[in-house]
Amino acid sequence: MTIKDDLNDRAQSKCELCSSTEKLEIFEVGPDSDGSADQCVLLCDICRNPHKSDVHHWRCLSDSMWTPVPAVQVLAWRMLNQLTDEAWARDLLDMLYLDDETAAWANAGAVKPEEAAVIHKDSNGAALTAGDTVVLIKDLNVKGAGFTAKRGTAVRNISLVPDNEAHIEGRVEGQHIVILTEFVKKK
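Structure (tokenized):
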């Protein structure tokens, strides 16, 4: 039996974080994974690429964090630690218990705050956080959507692009779009 077969059996052919059955692949949980089934998990494309997902996708951790599989617990803990701006994530993190060995593993591969410190600022230099409401300060042509987002339009419940401080995401006229932070001000 291969490691993927072992993981498929353990996870019942579902993503071990969100239970999706699409595009499942092996993910080694570092920092010092030996490639064994105990140090790997089966993840979907969205869970393997957390920077591409909506913050609310991670509400799935409220179920998966209770697994007896240490590798899954480690990933749940790490992800919840990256979402501490969200009240629900802080609540889940407070409930999550890791034994000493699993906690050490989780901490060893955790993204340090100084490494992840991408700070999004509006046109006036005010720091933006996920869930903020911003207002457009100029008309913006929305490529591919065929409309212009007008100056003064409020964009509620924004999400931050984790690896690019110049981009935020939000909904304008029902379309999910990427907006440059230089064209918004915090409301």
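The CA atoms of residues 56 and 86 lie 9 Å apart. Helices lie at 3-11, 45-48, 61-64, 70-82, 87-95, 100-108, 113-116.
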